[in-house]
Write a structure and sequence with these properties.
Helix content: 25-40%
Shape: globular
CATH architecture of the largest domain: 3-Layer(aba) Sandwich
Radius of gyration: 19 Å
CATH class of the largest domain: Alpha Beta
Bound molecules: adenosine-5'-diphosphate, magnesium ion
Length: about 280
Amino acid sequence: MMEITQRGSHGDVLTLKDVHVQFHNRLVLQHIEFAIQPGEFVGLIGPNGAGKTTLLKVILGLLTPNRGSVTVDGLPVKHGNPLVGYVPQKIHLEPDTPLRARDLVALGLDGHRWGIPLPSRSRREKVDEVLRAVDALDFADAPVGRLSGGEQQRLLIAQALLTQPKLLLLDEPLSNLDIRSAHEVVRLVSSIAQNQGIAVLLVAHDMNPLLGVMDKIVYLAAGNAAIGTVDEVVQNEVLSRLYGYDVEVIRVRGRILVVGGNNEVSTDLLQPTQHLDSMGGATD
Ligand SMILES: Nc1ncnc2c1ncn2[C@@H]1O[C@H](COP(=O)(O)OP(=O)(O)O)[C@@H](O)[C@H]1O
Ligand SMILES: [Mg+2]
């Protein structure tokens, strides 16, 4: 684990110390150590299989690490903590799903964490409030299956905001979105982080849509992580140490590519046969 940005632990929303996760005999995450402060937008970046979802599960309290500690707002993680909002990888909604946008969001109110059901008026107010936060009031009564991928993603973010979390975890919210929708979602999440002071940890295998909005990057590869600013972390030496072999960072037209020894790109969105020019947005 390379800690490039040193920060104090006071006021951290999320702190991971020396986290190790092992599946059977395989070490999937080792010595993961970083902290996130209120309002920070952090990208959790790494190739397929790097352990990004596993790390989110640890933070959600769904998976107990074999070693190390994780705290949210200074307390050990527990599953169902309302301080943690979670947007899972995109759910597939059939076009004829008989749910309105606001009903999908309201499903988040019926989780066990709320205990007794809320009266219908305050339910509606809470749902309207989060719909407004993701700029979705215009399509609040539309059938969810008819909405675009970006609009559906915004609804899932709204749902995650219902408990007024201090930390928002998003697992690959940009995969399956076209470049424009991806940028819209990134802008939205970034403004939520800034305006509401919510710390964001957003998982992506392609860092490019997040350049310019990330305060920090946590780069995961081969079970190791480096944290810092993009300029600090996305360097040949730093990433080569993580991967355990020589990789090269190439900047082309404002985009960043990480290329391995055999000209393989570390992010899984590219086939080796693709030409650089054809690099569009992240598709899964
Ligand atoms: N429950 C599990 N049991 C065994 N291996 C797992 C389990 N969950 C994930 N893995 C393995 O751990 C590695 C990291 O997986 P994952 O966290 O899903 O990666 P990412 O989200 O970065 O693509 C993968 O090799 C995956 O196969
Ligand atoms: Mg994953």
